[in-house]
Structure formats: structure tokens, C-alpha cells
Amino acid sequence: MLLSKENYDDRVEDADRTNPLPVLHGKGGVGKTSLSCASAITLCDRDKRVLLVSTDPASNLNEMLATPLRDIPTEVPSVPGLHAMNINPEAAADGYRERVLAQMAADASDSERSTVREQLSGACTTEIAAFDAFVGLLAEDMPEFDHIIFDTAPTGHTLRLLSLPKAWTGFLEGNDRGASCLGPHSGLKMQEVRFRAALACLGDQTRTTIVLVARPDGSALREAARTSAELSALGLRNQLLAVNGRFRATKIDDPIAVGIEQAQDSALSTMPVALSTLPRDEFPMLLFDIVGLDALRALFTPGSPVMAASGSVEEARLGLPPLGTLVDEIAEGEKSLVMVMGRGGVGKTTVAAAIAVGLVERGHAVHLTTTDPAAHLSFVVEGAMRGLTVDRIDPVAETKRYIDKVMASPGPRSRRGGQGTASGGSRISVHRGGR
Questions:
Q1: Phi/psi of residue 38, each to 5°?
Q2: Which of 83, 108, 134, 296 is the most exposed place for a label (fewest CB within 10 A)?
Q3: 277-290 burial, b if ≥16 CB within 10 A, otherwise e?
Q4: Angle at Cα 347 formed by Cα 341 and Cα 349, nearest 5°?
């Protein structure tokens, strides 16, 4: 079923009547925050009370709504009825540590408390704490809001959080001692009933809609299909596909414009079958930045003054050297490590892959890897190329390997710094970092 942008406004109205909990997922940069904010504002314009929550560590809700936000519901003065908040992972981790320590037995020794405090200092604590804060909003009775809209972190991070209760059940049931992640997961065990109730809420089709946001290109659509399957496996099946950035050529004699439209048509016509059967809405590529209330309202209002005023675009002349210049500089050296970093959606994967291919073309052996949980490098680098190896650091596999290692070596563990390794078979390693 194909639905236009105009239909999405009707869908927001339907959600107003039947579904109080939209959750927006998708890879970085596809427009989750824009659609989340526009949906929230549309509902508030209809006299509804809405809480908009970002679980993204790199949230830009503050800029979108022009309001300084905290980790508690904060009123957005310019939109009556709208409150928003950011779940701050570090602040959530601090609060989580205090709750776990407070639940220890009163006769616990200083040594035992110190051990748990050290166990709670790892990165796993931050992830579980963020999920705990997310679950808290689902578990709480919040009659002051008609709708809660979750603007989630990029796909891989969100899936990792949503799968935590299920993934750790066996470990928690069989292991009460001896693992360096015992501290944070002891806290998880204490909240197991609440976590399960929250997942049941997310899986309730009468309460929750999962909106999968994607760009109309093969990589984003394949990732959306994978996300859809993994969410379905977790019991979250009430899904909607929102295709953002749909381009329509206005001049048939412009080969670039026509080519972009045809490429998008091809990607949409060949998307995975499971994704093509979902209800679908499309949003056009816009000529203006979706920041500020007028721009956000214009997203659901074709022909608005904001859109009309954006008809002329001035070409930017930055005078920056091409990427090939950077590749030439890297190629002049011996073995090296190149790390490509940035916020979601800015093109880290594309740039990392382009650098890797450029170095191979200049005669270097290159290893290209990623720590991004979404790991869509293979979608960008299709096929084989002599001199180039591609892999990913799988968070699930590495976590299991770490647990097995810890369980095989019980007892006190000294605090050690991490050690880096280099691949002897590669002269240059290009690493696509997470956010």
C-alpha cells in the first residue's frame, strides 16, 4: 500500500485517535528527528498533549525546537501542549549506579561495594542505564500526556538496547557471581519484570507504532528491512515505512535530476519483499533545512510559505580540495591507521569506503572495518577488489567472547588498559568509527 505525504497527516490523525506511542527507528541521517518533531507539533496543534523523547546520544532536539532540554520533560514554550526531553546516557548511568548500590544489602562490606562500583564503570553500564531510563517512561503512568513519541538512536544502537532483556536472560538466570559485568546486570535483574512489561507495551499494536525511516536508496532500504525483521523477532510487528527524501525531476532535459529519480525508483521497486508489504508514506526532498517550527510544520503542509520561499538556492563555493587530495597524502606514507568519525548520517561509511578504494587503486593493501552496530559497509562496498579486505566488529559476538573469557577466569581481576592490535597483512587500515 503506497501512501503519500498528504496521507501521513491523516495517519497522524489516526494515531491521535488510536495509537498513543509512536517509536521512530532508522539509520543515522534519514530524518527520524524531523519526522518526530513534525508529528509532535501536528498533534499539539490539534490540542493534544505530547511528550517527545530522544534516546539518541547525539540528539539535536534542542536545535530543532530552539529549546534547551534536560533529562526530564521540559515545556517547549512556542508549542502549547508539547514537552520534550533527552535521555542523557551519562546522567542515566550515574543514576543507575546509585540505584544498584542502594539496593545492596545493608551489611555489604566496603570492599563489596567498591567491587560493584568498579563493575559499574564499564560501557555496558551506560547502555543498560539508557535502556532503563527508556523503560521507565513506558512503565510510568503519565496521564498528563496523550502521546509519547520516541526519537531513537540509529538502528544498531536501538536494536542492541531493545534486545538486552532477552539476550541476558540466560546469563542472569545461571550466573550470580564471577563476571565483571555482574554489577550492571544485577541492576538489570532487579528490574526484569519492568523491562518485560515495557517490551510487551512496545509489542502492543493497539498502543505502539514502529515507524521505520529510510532514504530511497538501496543501502538504507536494506538496513530498514533487516531492522524490520529483527524488531519482528522481538515481537514489535506494528510497523510503518516512512521513505524520506523522495526526489522528483522537474525538468526532463536535466540528466542528473532524471538519473537521481530513476535510481530512487529502482531502489524502491527492488526493496526486500518483507519491507514492500508494509504500509508506506513518502516525503519529498526539500530545498531547506528542517530546523525551526515553521520548517517543521511545512513538512506536512504542501505549498506552505516556507516551501515557496525556498525556490532559489545559491551555489556554495567553499574552495575545498577534493577527497583524492587527502587520499594522495595518506598514500605517501607507510603503514597507517585512518579513522573516519562524525555524527550519524554525515557519510562516514561512504567516505571510509572511498578512501579505502582510492588507496587500493594507488597500490596499497587496505583493511576496512567498522564498529557501527548497523554495519552497512558491505552494502556500500559491493563485490571483491584485489588488495581490499572488509569486515566488521560484531558487538554481539565480541560481548559473548568477553563473557566466555571472564567466566573461564573467575576471581579478582586487575584493572587493565586496553591494548591495540595491528594487522600485519595490511599496510593501511581504514576504520569507520561509530558516533
A1: -65, -40
A2: 108
A3: ebebbbbeebeeeb
A4: 70
The full set of domain ranges for the chain reads 2-308, 323-414+421-432
Residues 6+ apart with CB under 8 A from 137: 51, 53, 148
Average pLDDT, 10 consecutive residues per value, the chain (435 residues): 38 54 66 89 91 83 88 92 87 77 74 75 68 74 85 63 55 45 50 71 84 89 87 85 91 91 94 92 82 82 56 66 91 87 80 90 90 64 78 75 70 42 46 59
Q: Supply the pLDDT for residue 269.
A: 94
Residue type, 313: V
What's this model's pTM, rounded to 2 decimal places? 0.68
SS3 148: strand
Say if domain 2-308 classifies as CATH 3.40.630.30.
no
H or E stretch covering 432: strand 428-432
Q: How many CB atoms lie within 10 A of CB 92?
A: 23
pLDDT at 328: 92
| CA gyration radius, the chain | 24
- pLDDT score of 169: 46
Residue 192: predicted pLDDT = 66
List, in sequence order, every beta strand (DSSP E) within 217-294: 239-246, 280-284
Beta carbons within 8 Å of 324's beta carbon, 6+ residues apart: 358
Q: In a 10 Å sphere around its CB, with 0-12 CB exposed, 13-18 middle and 19+ buried, how is residue 413 labelled?
A: middle
Helix or strand run (H / E) with residue 367: strand 366-370
- Torsion, Cα of 298, 301, 305, 308 (10° steps): 100
Question: Which is the CATH superfamily of the domain at 323-414+421-432?
Answer: P-loop containing nucleotide triphosphate hydrolases (3.40.50.300)
The pLDDT of residue 386: 86
Residue 312's pLDDT is: 53
Q: Do domains 2-308 and 323-414+421-432 have the same CATH topology?
A: yes
